[in-house]
Amino acid sequence: MINILDRARLAISALVMTSLLFGIGGAAVAYQAVAATAYTATGAVNVRTGPGTSYAIVATLKSGQAVTGAGTAKNGWQPVTYGDKTRYVYASYLKATSTATPTPSATTGTGTTRVTSENVNVRTGPSLNDPIVTVLTKGTTVSSTGKTSGDFTQITHEAKLRWVYSAYLTASATTTPATEAKYSAITTALLALRTTASITATSGGDLPTGTTVELTGVHSLSYSQVLRNGKLYWVLSGSARW
Predict the structure, then answer these.
(1) Residue 129: which domain range?
(2) Dist CA 87 CA 148 (whole Å)
(3) What is the pTM of this model?
(4) Of the residues 166, 197, 204, 236, which has the maximum number of CB atoms within 10 A of its CB?
């Protein structure tokens, strides 16, 4: 049997525990979320489904590529978030770079034309957690708005504002003003005008067979830059007679 004194002690203990968990006066305690750690690959390293070499490889990180930690490393393997799933990377090939914080304020500069130095994901926002909408191949010319946020640069892709990893962008070789052309050519097939050197770029119309076009002399992979009605476009090379 629990006597009156024991009941009082139990009631006091419960009250103390409630105060510790929720705070005096019923105000809930705000727990601080554990911040994730950002890592950078120090060399080419595989991303695996589990913590060991017997697990399947789902991707390979390149030197300098960033990932977000998903917990504490165990037995030499670091859990990371990759493709919205927890994957594992050999910890010796990762270097902690910073503690993840809210998305930094964006800075704005002068808009420029840039070229991708590697295949790069195009995302809806400036972080590795934002959805991927497409992948730009190496050598694709893109239009930067001049705005950056953290490690990402804002670009215009198919008439929408997107973000790509800044380290995979280099200065464009395009230096020819839009009012000048170096060569002339005659199309040998119906050609689609593109706003960037990509088959997925916004169309600027078509050039019928036999159309004389002006070229700036700038090329990107299988595309050549042309001047049409005072604007710069891109067309597939090899379909014009120089």
Answers:
(1) 107-171
(2) 28
(3) 0.34
(4) 197
